[in-house]
Amino acid sequence: MTTDSRTEPQLLDAARAWGAADPDPVTRAELAGLVEAAGTGDAAARAELADRFSGTLQFGTAGLRAAMGAGPMRMNRVVVLRAAAGLAAHVLAVQTPADATADAAAVASARRPRAVVGYDARHRSDVFARDTAAVFTAAGIETLLMPSALPTPVLAWAVRALGAEVGVMVTASHNPPADNGYKVYLGGRAVEPEARGCQIVAPQDRLIAERIAAVGPVGEIPRAREGWTVLPRSVEQDYLDAVVPAAPGAERSLRIVLTAMHGVGGRTTTEALRRAGLADVHPVPEQAEPDPDFPTVAFPNPEEPGALDLALAAARAEGADLVLANDPDADRVAVAVPVPGAGSTAGGSADQDWRMLRGDEVGALLGHAAAARWAGRAGAVFANSIVSSRLLGRIAAAAGIEHRETLTGFKWIARVPGLVYGYEEALGYCVAPEVVRDKDGISAAVAVAVLADELRAQGRTLLDVLDDLAVAHGLHATDQLSIRVADLARIPVMTAALRDDPPAALGGSEVVEVVDLAAPGTGLPPTEGLRLLTADGARVIVRPSGTEPKLKCYLEVVSPVVGRAGLPAALAEAQERLARIRAELESALGL
Asked: Are residues 318 and 176 in the same domain?
């Protein structure tokens, strides 16, 4: 809990004033209970109030994301109404005249600014979305509200397709059930042409935050009772028409187990797969329908240990060829594949072993497939974040395709001019940037499944392609060290210690370069973090997490491979080097 210097009467007065202005009876009652308990000497209630009123939830490039509850440091209707009012003011202030490069819908009419608002199935998401629509409409913005809880990629597509100046998605993605969030896209006349449909970056986040801070009392924010348009249910099909056009006559035999992780992507992803001829799809029944409590997983993130247990059990039972797992808002996808041997049989069996692919592995597989389509094409660009594997750059170079590295996050990847494929290691892939300028776990799921089916028809697997890439470009092995802290002040202390006294060697190889990513001259916008390179090509990037109280370290080694017979030795060497680097990094950080 955060400490608070105010006296108890001051804290209780602040809480009572907040409750008096709160339009939500749920959070009003919650806050009243805390105030009453704190007033009778309950230390836990007092500490909870001090934490909730220790500041104001800050709007940044990730928008807003926090636990739900009453108070300015939580996600609630007061915070959302103020955010919507500030965002509306920003959009009205920054519009530029439509020009010949603008989206077709924007050029077609000289009109008031337009917004699209979407939401997932988390607790209060629909309420936050309607509040946003009410504020936008009252501010004079033409507002289009999604007809139901739908995946984030549908909203991201709609911003561009409908020529909207702003898009809001109410979602906390793969965060715990208690959280919610507010993700913002700009488009139309509110941003430069190459950034239309992308999430916000600096300085837009700062300018919007300033507008939010200038909003007056929440009770004085104008809110319309009606006047926004609820989009037809066909908007989901319109997205599918754009991103996965039906392939008449395509019949693919791949058997897929799909989990929606209790989120909103199950129906849309299943239909997308069907359109691509992949009809043999088996949803994980316990996780197929949206459920904001996420009852079968400790943490609704496909990357977390245990999150895919039900899907893998279903895959063994069904004799599946592939497991696909969307996160709750379906902008990411995890992939698991059967491992040869381990008692498996052709077509699968109950004792078949499975392996979840790393995000970098899926990124390389989709890059390999994209390279076959874009090889030698002038102007085509591949991109990935700096914390992702360098393998995509080597795949691109071999195909005569330009490659770019960006800061972490699709808000940067999606802005790359000429982008035809991009990814980040955290299970995010953009396979159709001309349609969705963001990561899209639905179209990526289709792309992976189609590739796996085509390989299966050749008697090959996704693992075979990864082996091919290792032989051609070296075995690129990655790992992470993630350090969760109770006190955020520890993160800059650890980073500064590493900057001031970096290790002389990592994994038995001399550290030949230490780059402060916050300094100018790196070729990227300044960001907090360090990059260390060794003489034998190992790379470590250390940076604070943008969404969690963590310091994250991304490790990569590259081991040469002499023919396919050399793969086992190269893998063993790479794993040994990663383990040594991880241990040495922990020591350097004082862990």
From this structure: no
